Amino acid sequence: MALLKNDFLLDVCALDSEGNKLHPYKGEKGLKKGLFSVNFTNDTNKFEGYTEAQLIDAIVKGKFKTKGTIRMLPLNYKAGMERNAFSPKLYLGKSIKSYG
């Protein structure tokens, strides 16, 4: 099933190595269905499901200042595209490092 625009959190973004804007997206199946995948460890198997409110709260409290990634995709993603995790760079157009 394709992700819809409302499955993305557009207030948060990162850039990939080619300069494409990426946004967190809600999981489509499994335990994290409808949640954003967030990780604050070096273990790629330790992603947690966060609601939008939990994710924004973590950003505002500064949890992403030094560590943390979110699974993100560009809005124009193609089916089968690799779903990597990125450190968020901006929230509401303001640097993530300025929060907390």
What does this structure look like?
With 100 residues, the chain is mainly beta. It has one domain. It is 9% helix and 26% strand. It is built from 1 helix and 8 strands, in the order E-E-E-E-H-E-E-E-E. The chain has one helix at residues 52-60; strands at residues 12-15, 21-24, 36-39, 48-50, 69-73, 85-86, 90-91, 94-95. Strands 1, 2, 3, 4, 5, 6, 7 and 8 form an 8-stranded antiparallel β-sheet that branches. A hairpin with a 2-residue loop joins strand 7 (90-91) and strand 8. The radius of gyration is 13 Å and the shape is globular. The mean pLDDT is 94.
Question: What is this structure's SSE topology?
Answer:
Blueprint: E1 12-15, E2 21-24, E3 36-39, E4 48-50, H1 52-60, E5 69-73, E6 85-86, E7 90-91, E8 94-95
Antiparallel strand pairs: 1-2, 1-7, 2-5, 3-4, 3-5, 5-6, 7-8
Short summary of the structure?
The protein is mainly β and 100 residues long.
Mean pLDDT: 94
What separation lies between the terminal Cα atoms? 36 Å
Number of domains: 1
Beta fraction of the residues? 25-35%
Per the principal axes of the C-alpha atoms, what is the gross shape?
globular
Sheet having the most strands: 8 strands, antiparallel
Helix and strand run = EEEEHEEEE
Query: What's the total count of β strands?
Result: 8
Structural class: mainly beta
Tell me the helix content: under 10%
Structural descriptors:
100 residues, mainly beta, 8-stranded antiparallel β-sheet, 26% strand
